[in-house]
Amino acid sequence: MNILEQLPIPLLSWYRENARTLPWRSAPTPYHVWVSEIMLQQTRVAAVLGYYQRFMEALPTVEALAGVEEDVLMKLWQGLGYYNRARNLQKAARQIVDGFAGEFPRTYETLLSLAGVGEYTAGAIASIAFGVSVPAVDGNVLRVVSRITGDDSDISRPETKARMREALLQIIPRDAPGDFNQAMMELGATVCVPNGAPNCDNCPANSFCAAFLQEKTAQLPVKAPKRARRTEERRVFLIFVQNGEKRVALRRRPARGLLAGLWEYPNELKAVDHPLETWGVHPVGTQYGGVGKHIFTHIEWHMTAQIVYIEENDLPKGWIWADRAALRRDYAVPNAFQSFAHLVEERL
Q1: Of 34, 28, 140, whose CA–CA distance to 86 is shortest?
Q2: Catalytic residue among 37, 119, 215, 311
Q3: How far apart (Å, rounded) are the C-alpha atoms in residues 269 and 278?
Q4: Does the N terminus or the C terminus of the chain have fewer Cβ atoms within 10 A?
Q5: Helices H, strands E: what count in the chain?
Q6: Is 159 among the catalytic positions?
Q7: Which residues share a beta bridge with 295?
Q8: How far is CA 95 from its chain centroid?
Q9: Burial letters for 289-303: b for 16+ Cβ neighbours within 10 Å, e otherwise?
Q10: What are the tens digits of pLDDT across the range 276-319?
């Protein structure tokens, strides 16, 4: 017998007793499932809850998401990171409005045609919202399958994921595919955890889990190490009005690339000479602002801040002044600059 064939009954029983109460589970419409799954990519559930509530209050329908201004969308997403997720949400919303008359496509294959929707997200929406018997395989699920089956294949390899997905396709309950997929995610997030020892005593699969029975939970899953991140030394300029209204300077990042289109405090690589002069900014006072660090997927920023005061009319073309209210309400400044948020708050 395939070891995974023993999983559905105890897993579903465990899930119905232990599932966390989450807002998108209480109303699993396609829109709710979709938005929550995109938010949860690379992000913990606890961090998503508040964002999800605010997002749904502001954009309760796919039509509202399709029509919202990008700056408003970015402000709603501010702090979640990976901002292309939000842009792809809007692209897909417009696809749904324009190409599907505002109705979510109901098949796994058609869901894959939406911007930013891959195999996992399509599987989650199809199974949870429409009852389609298709797996939703993310990192949590790969870890659970690897441990239960004792599979020491590299889970970062596409062929491993495809093989595990096919194995799950054979056992997913036809009458409860959404619950099964959510149970697998829940098990991986709360019991068969990625960091630290799994809570095997409370796992519904512990009587047949190969990793538990063979004491190999620390060795599984196998995953190739990530490529080392590149480090960038940067200077961040916190520019304020001298002897005027309390405002800070912002500029918009380029439309493509890292943090595309977001507002930021002006910054430059530390190796670049005289950036203020290059920008045409003429300080009337400066002081040291401290250091900060931010880690992206492939890049690590090491930042040193300089506080700069200039005359109000000395701002370069395309930059804007923002007061405290506008900064909180209108402009999405990435978390990359969170180290310096207190310095800005103190001066506004």
Answers
A1: 34
A2: 37
A3: 13
A4: N
A5: 16, 7
A6: no
A7: 300
A8: 21
A9: beebebebeeeebeb
A10: 999 999 999 999 999 999 999 999 999 999 999 999 888 999 99
